[in-house]
Write a structure and sequence with these properties.
Distance between the termini of chain B: 54 Å
Helix content of chain B: 40-55%
Number of domains of chain A: 2
Oligomer: heterodimer
Strand order of the largest sheet of chain B: 1-2-6-3-5-4
CATH architecture of the largest domain in chain B: 2-Layer Sandwich
Largest sheet of chain A: 6 strands, mixed
Structural class of chain B: alpha+beta
Order of helices and strands of chain B: EEEHHEEHHHHHEHEEHHEEHHHHHE
CATH class of the largest domain in chain B: Alpha Beta
CATH class of the largest domain in chain A: Alpha Beta
Helix content of chain A: 40-55%
Number of domains of chain B: 2
Distance between the termini of chain A: 60 Å
Structural class of chain A: alpha+beta
Strand content of chain A: 15-25%
Radius of gyration of chain B: 23 Å
Strand content of chain B: 15-25%
């Protein structure tokens, strides 16, 4: 057999066709827009409703989170226990998620049980009862969870970070405390629910193996005018942002590691610099081979991991570098991060590294749109910002075209030490 | 149902291919039959440390991650007590890049001091992040050590102690590689947008010439049956008392394994599960509670653990857990509840199969365990479990004298 030269890498192809295709959209009778992602051989389906009812819509800290969590705890027709029992019986799952701008309630089930489960999901959405007893219990367990999290340096550092990026009285900035939860009543939830959980305020995503019959069933259950049909809510005025760049050290005496959070407020994915920042962030700390990982983990061994991320919000966005490091290396880590900022500002990124990040990103995006549930997450990221498929195509084009000069330009504007909020929580 | 083709190379490497033409991606999974169980008691954590070193470059390729990322892919790995698993996801067109890299590090790892020194530090930080610097983080070390007196499951994959990792030497690394990283002790799975006929050629090209050089005979101490309850009290600055109970469960290949899985589903999966409903909702003794099996190849554990509400005594909470467990022993589960956990399991498996990486990982694990074909018999095995099985197996497992209990208490 011929000897194989193992030092020569196999030929590579950069993914050419990265496309979201043409996802179907259906308007339910009551006007809800349903995005249908019909992919896959497995006999499963998910139905998700996203409401404009996140933290930015609450008038009491924590109200959005707990209302969305309590929505599963009993309906006008069934008590919490019976409801849970029936949902579980069909092997279904109803998951709730609350974020800064939106909340969602998602049903996952075997297709064969959709006719049985959809009415339960529909009750939860249309007539939750918010029983006092369930809230008393959920409040107590949630408070205990908060107290446990507060013992973690990660939580301590993150809470302080958001407070200084957005301000302690802005929904993007405040953390929810046990006292906040103490002051929330089921009546608050009922009012919040009535105001925000209506058909006009909802967007739907249906994913998995989806037939026309399934869609008719969904229309029957959730597409009628029996729940709060009125126009989409417009955002009330939010408090001003209070952004105060600074270095903060929070001592936690018994800690063997320090949590570090570094970052600054930016903008969301609609901003003209976003795609460039996406590349810059990837180079800095957005993948395993990033500069921060190479330097602080693979060269120095200060940490198990360090990441940098770019996060979009409806009315803002931010960049965040997060890591947990050995206490004795927390100051070194801060200076190495600054050094990496300087390198990006002072030196053009080389062609080889740029090609690496470009290829990685394109392959990664191809993976992220693979399969019904992944693709749904990507589409949600577009539609919730009022963006279309064309925006995704532009993103792919920009990733291929952004050059070293543009990355340097962005680094010079945004990666400045005196713009950063830096938090170290540890010993 | 996961379809696949299988072939075996002359060097003993087993290869499975799961074709899914609907995806442009490929998942590559390479499982090695070596885990923390193969470590010596004074050098624990080594299998996992070694996994880190596998990314430090091999004989002909200086860096593992760079070519994978250049090919648009990502790579990672995990180690558990039983085995070590490496995987990549990348565009299917570039599959050969992963085969090149995986074969080169199977052939000859570039073992060097620098990589060892850095990864020792990284793993020590991983140890601290997950097992020291978390509330209750050290409990798993204690629970294993107490549950197993002879078997190597007595230490967690991360290692018994930071010093074991700090003391790892270059010779140990070379020896471990030579002994364990052999083609006949590995299973390679390719899944996604791949064609068996094409990938078979590429697999042969890159892997066929790697020869197995060492023979390893696994000879693990057998854990004697537990005949008396074991108890420990830990105290630290935590916001809530917690209880951890570990019962001896079954071996992974025992016919009763699937029943133990359903038992923990009856106990803790879903809002209507017994522990959730009775102990969190009705009696309000716990803020969170869980039950699961560790699923190890040798005698595994069935764990029940929960955080206790303020003002509730831990003895009262423990008694209430026992009442729920003993009810499974004394009273047959009704048909409705049996059907519920089976439906849950069926949904769980069906959702899992939507992901090519899950499929590749599961195929590799089943082939390593016994035979990949078993994976497609799983649903049937779960569906044929009867209420009598649940009662019988519960009676075997939920015995006071076979239970290890840790009270984790708030320090005032």
């Amino acid at each position: 057999m011929a000897t194989l030269d193992r030092s020569i890498a196999p030929a590579l192809q950069v993914p050419e066709h990265i496309s979201l295709g043409n996802p179907k959209q259906v308007k339910l009778d009551n006007g809800i827009l349903a995005h249908v992602i019909n992919i896959g051989q497995q006999e499963v389906i998910s139905v998700e409703l996203v409401f404009q009812a996140g933290k930015t819509w609450e008038n009491k800290p924590g109200l959005s989170m707990v209302t969305n969590r309590m929505i599963r705890e009993g309906s006008a027709q069934l008590g919490a226990e019976e409801l849970a029992k029936q949902v579980d019986f069909y092997g279904a799952n109803i998951k709730t998620k609350a974020a800064s701008d939106n909340v969602s309630v998602t049903l996952y089930c075997l297709r064969k049980f959709l006719p049985q489960v959809l009415p339960l999901y529909s009750q939860i959405i249309k007539s939750p009862s918010f029983p006092d007893r369930e809230w008393e219990r959920l409040r107590a367990t949630t408070i205990q969870g908060l107290l446990i999290n507060r013992e973690k340096v990660e939580t301590i550092a993150s809470d302080a970070f958001y407070e200084h990026i957005f301000g302690a009285d802005h929904p993007y900035g405040y953390a929810i405390s046990p006292e906040d939860l103490e002051s929330i009543s089921v009546e608050d939830m009922r009012v919040f629910y009535r105001e925000r959980y209506h058909a006009g305020n909802a967007i739907m995503f249906v994913a998995g193996k989806v037939s026309t019959d399934d869609l008719s069933m969904i229309n029957e259950a959730l597409g009628q005018n029996d729940w709060n049909a009125r126009p989409r809510d417009t955002q009330n005025e939010l408090p001003d942002f209070h952004y105060s760049p600074r270095e903060l050290r929070i001592n936690k005496a018994d800690s063997v590691q320090s949590a570090i959070r570094i970052g600054l407020p930016l903008f969301n994915k609609k901003h003209k610099d976003y795609h460039g920042m996406y590349m810059l962030n990837t180079i800095l700390g957005g993948y395993f081979g990033s500069r921060l990982m190479s330097n602080i983990r693979e060269d120095k061994g200060y940490t198990y991991g360090i990441q940098s991320m770019l996060v979009s919000l409806q009315s803002s966005g931010y960049m965040l570098i997060a890591t947990e490091v050995a206490n004795e290396h927390s100051e070194d880590t801060l200076s190495e991060v600054s050094l990496e900022f300087d390198r990006l500002k002072n030196e053009l990124v080389g062609e080889e590294e740029l090609a690496l990040v470009r290829n990685f990103t394109l392959g990664n995006v191809l993976n992220q749109i693979n399969g019904a549930f992944n693709k749904t997450a990507i589409l949600k990221g577009l539609y919730l910002y009022g963006l279309e498929i064309a925006h995704f195509d532009r993103f792919i084009r920009d990733i291929k075209e952004i050059d070293a000069a543009e990355i340097q330009r962005l680094a010079r504007i945004y990666l400045n030490d005196d713009l950063m909020v830096k938090v170290i929580a540890g010993n | 149902m996961i379809q696949y083709n299988k072939f075996t190379l002359d060097n003993g490497l087993r290869v499975l291919v799961h074709e899914d033409p609907s995806t442009p991606m490929a998942a590559v999974n390479l499982a090695y039959d070596v885990g923390a169980r193969d470590e010596s008691p004074d050098k624990t954590g080594f299998a996992h440390l070694f996994e880190h070193l596998m990314f430090g470059g091999s004989k002909n390729v200086p860096d593992f991650d760079y070519p994978i990322q250049l090919a648009g892919g990502e790579s990672n790995a995990f180690t558990n007590n039983d085995y070590t698993n490496y995987y990549e996801v990348l565009p299917a067109n570039n599959l050969e890049t992963a085969l090149w890299l995986e074969s080169d590090r199977m052939l000859a790892l570039d073992i060097n001091d620098r990589s060892l020194e850095v990864q020792k530090r990284v793993v020590c930080e991983e140890f601290k992040e997950n097992y020291i610097n978390q509330p209750y983080g050290d409990v798993w070390h204690k629970l294993r050590a107490l549950s197993y007196q002879r078997h190597p499951y007595q230490w967690p994959t991360i290692g018994k102690d930071l010093s074991h990792i700090e003391n790892a030497a270059l010779d140990d690394v070379q020896h471990f590689f030579d002994l364990h990283y052999q083609p006949n002790r590995a299973v390679l799975v390719l899944a996604g947008g791949v064609k068996t006929s094409q990938v078979e050629k590429a697999v042969r090209k890159w892997f066929e010439q790697i020869q197995p050089n060492f023979t390893y005979t696994r000879n693990l101490p057998i854990e004697a049956p537990q005949t008396a309850d074991r108890n420990l009290i830990l105290r630290s600055r935590i916001p809530a008392d917690a209880i951890y109970m570990a019962f001896k469960s079954t071996e992974r290949l025992s016919p009763d394994y699937y029943t133990t899985d359903l038992i923990t589903d009856i106990l803790a999966v879903g809002e209507s599960s017994r522990l959730q409903r009775i102990l969190i909702k009705d009696l309000q003794l716990f803020s969170e509670i869980d039950a699961y099996i560790t699923g190890d190849i040798h005698l595994g554990l069935l764990i029940v653990t929960g955080k206790i509400m303020p003002g509730v005594s831990i003895e009262k909470a423990e008694k209430a857990v026992w009442n729920v467990l003993e009810d499974l022993v004394h009273r047959k589960v009704d048909g409705q509840e049996m059907q519920k956990v089976k439906n849950k399991m069926e949904a769980h498996i069906e959702f899992s199969e939507t992901n090519i990486m899950n499929n590749a990982m599961n195929l590799a694990y089943y082939e390593l365990l016994s035979d990949a074909e078993e994976i497609n018999l799983e649903v049937h095995k779960y569906l044929s479990i009867e209420a009598e099985d649940v009662q019988r197996v519960s009676a075997e497992i939920f015995r006071k004298e076979a239970c290890t209990t840790i009270y984790y208490l708030k320090q005032d």
